[in-house]
Amino acid sequence: MSSAGIILPPILPGATLGVLGGGQLGRMFTLAARVLGYRVLVLDPDPDSPAGSVADIHLRADYTDKQALARMGAECAAVTTEWENVPASTLEALATHCPVRPSAAAVAVARDRIREKIFVRDLGLATAPFFAIKCEDDLAAAVAGLRLPALLKTATLGYDGKGQLPVDSLEHARAAFAQLGERPCVLEEKVKLAQELSVVLARGADGETAVYPVGENVHRNGILHTTRVPGCIAPGVAELAIGMAQRVAAELDYVGVLAVEFFFTTDGELLINEMAPRPHNSGHYTLDASATSQFEQQVRALCGLPLGSTRLLSPVTMLNLLGDVWGDSQPDWQQVFAHPEAKLHLYGKREARPGRKMGHINLLSENADASFVLANELFATLNTR
Ligand code: AMP
Fold first, then answer.
1. Which CATH number among 3.60.20.10, 3.50.50.60, 2.40.30.40, 3.40.50.20 corresponds to the domain 16-100?
2. Whole-angstrom distance, CA of residue 349 vs CA of residue 358
3. Which of 382, 285, 385 is CA-nearest to residue 334?
């Protein structure tokens, strides 16, 4: 069993927990941990980091800063991460001091699209057809072996549709590879999407797993727009997705919260798109609509506590708020507060830029259809600029 999976006595409230990364995911982890009575130390170089501003301690240093890592290791009973691009050496260095969950090995698979897709394929689970592109010479065979159009995606550091370009010929593929800086990439077929789904689960060091209901996601311009739960999902498909996500978690000997994103194609195939070794935007609905939020679950898994119930308390649609709806001024929040079951979450980011995730709203309702309609109506009202 990996070091992440070693069963230790539970870490109880009063202890200090560390989180690598100070964005919104770190912030919501920090808030959940503090509600439970833990102290939280955030490592993030940004003085204005959303998580740093709500933490007990904000270490403003680089993720490779040896002194900062030594302090974090000495002060924290356990450490987790809010993003997959923290260097593996950082996770490994911290693991010599305290439990780091998820493990560096699991994060390494999720961080790199090439490793991730090969890992999924080797498990016998489906992905969109793809080729790994390490140099320009790999492009010709990949273009010949795929049905075009395809997408060229950087293997690392791509998110929210960033670092990916459409390709419909070898010539295009070469130009796209150059435009992406000739970095390792995957070229993958553009599949015909009927739906996008995601499974968020938590797995403890003892292998206990708690799975949230499957979310149905709508993306706009490559960025998550809404997640609706329960989704309107064909019979059997949610169970299949859950089984695939559980298999991934077990094979990674995963400890923590894991999200697996799926494509459900018009041909009825369920493909794994990618995974995130942390709470996920499509799990933000759990903050208001679930017995245990994905962030409390992250605390529980990190601390070796029993996992909480994932029971859905209310149908819900989560609506993302991107910087686009800010324009020159704050959105008209009165429109949101006018809805008695709209739950506003803002991340405390000072600057609203197009595409930047600034917050989200969870719209609860008696049924998911109504919450989905409400989310889209509210979006239309806020997005009038
Ligand atoms: P990603 O960053 O890989 O999750 O991609 C962002 C979004 O782009 C996805 O949620 C899909 O809406 C779309 N997308 C990405 N890859 C594909 C694909 N192979 N086929 C169809 N749509 C895709």
1. 3.40.50.20
2. 6
3. 382
CA diameter of the chain? 59
For ligand 1, the distance from its centroid to the CA atom of residue 377, given in whole angstroms, is 25
Which pLDDT score, from 0 to 100, does residue 1 have? 42
- Measured by CA distance, the residue closest to atom 11 of ligand 1 is 222
193-382 adopts what CATH topology?
A: D-amino Acid Aminotransferase; Chain A, domain 1 (3.30.470)
Q: For residues 85 and 156, is the Cβ–Cβ distance under 8 A?
A: yes
Computed from CA positions of residues 226, 228, 234, 235, in that sequence, does the dihedral angle turn out positive or negative? Answer: positive
pLDDT tens, 323-365? 999 988 889 999 999 999 999 999 999 999 999 999 999 999 9
Q: What is the CATH number of domain 129-189?
A: 3.30.1490.20
Helix ranges, the chain (H): 24-35, 66-75, 88-95, 104-111, 113-122, 139-145, 170-179, 237-251, 286-289, 294-303, 333-337, 368-382
Q: What is the pLDDT of residues 289-298, one digit of tens each?
A: 999 999 999 9
Which pTM was predicted? 0.95
CA–CA dist 382, 385 (Å, integer)? 8
Ligand 1 pocket test: which of 131, 151, 227, 272 has the largest number of ligand atoms within 8 Å of its C-beta? 151
- With a 6 A CB cut-off, is 222 part of the ligand 1 pocket? yes
Instruction: Kindly list the distances between the CA atom of residue 297 and the CA atoms of 33, 226, 230, 287, 291, in Å, as whole numbers in the listed order.
Output: 10, 22, 20, 11, 10
Q: Are 11 and 303 in contact (CB under 8 A)?
A: yes
Q: Please identify, by atom number, the ligand 1 atom nearest to the C-alpha of residue 217.
A: 10
Residue type, 92: E
Identity of the amino acid at 326: W
pLDDT digits (tens, 9 = 90+) for 185-240: 999 999 999 999 999 999 999 999 999 999 999 999 999 999 999 999 998 999 99
**DSSP label at 15?**
B
Question: Which amino acid is located at 191 in the chain?
Answer: V
Q: Are 307 and 301 in contact (CB under 8 A)?
A: yes
